[in-house]
Amino acid sequence: MTNRPGNTSLTPTRRAATVLAGLALGVALLAGCSSEGTDTDCSIAGSCTITFQRGVEASANILGVEAKLVGAENDQVTVEVAGEQVTLITGQQATEVGGLSVTLDSVTDQEVKIRVSQGAGG
């Protein structure tokens, strides 16, 4: 058997290191958000959708800030993002709060869904 330069097969050690690096990246991405009374769905592109359960004290830590549902009535909700309260209406353009764009996606009797993105314009 001849070893040729440029052989692209991975040794078991390199393969294990590649798998561990991939797992570490996945854990790091998931560690970026935590929640209580909410479901969060964050993308690598710096955008998170937060679904708050109504009737409970709901909050989520995403993109380095805390987001809380303060209140909801009809198609209008008040949330606190990065320590600043803002009132959102369904269909309204994104509102900038603490350098993040916040948009109200939907309001039902059971849940409130908002989108939080890095940078202006959501």
Index terms:
5-stranded antiparallel β-sheet; 1 helix; alpha+beta; 122 residues; globular
Can you walk through the features of this model?
- This protein has one helix at 12-31; strands at residues 34-36, 38-42, 47-53, 59-62, 65-73, 76-81, 84-89, 95-97, 100-107, 111-118.
- It is an alpha+beta fold and 122 residues long.
- A hairpin with a 2-residue loop joins strand 4 and strand 5 (65-73).
- The radius of gyration is 20 Å and the shape is globular.
- Residues 16-32 have low confidence and may be disordered.
Name the helix and strand elements from N-terminus to C-terminus, one letter apiece.
Answer: HEEEEEEEEEE
Gyration radius (Cα, Å) is: 20 Å
Tell me the β content: over 45%
Q: Numbering strands along the chain, what is their spatial order in the largest sheet?
A: 1-4-5-6-7
Strand count, sense and closure of the main sheet?
A: 5 strands, antiparallel
Shape: globular
Average pLDDT rating: 78
Q: Show unreliable segments.
A: 16-32
Question: Total number of helical segments?
Answer: 1
**From the helix content, strand content and strand pairing, which structural class follows?**
alpha+beta
Distance between the termini: 57 Å
Q: Total strand count, please? A: 10
What percent of the residues sit in helical stretches (DSSP H or I)? 10-25%
Topology, pairings included?
Layout: H1 12-31, E1 34-36, E2 38-42, E3 47-53, E4 59-62, E5 65-73, E6 76-81, E7 84-89, E8 95-97, E9 100-107, E10 111-118
Antiparallel strand pairs: 1-4, 2-3, 3-10, 4-5, 5-6, 6-7, 8-9, 9-10
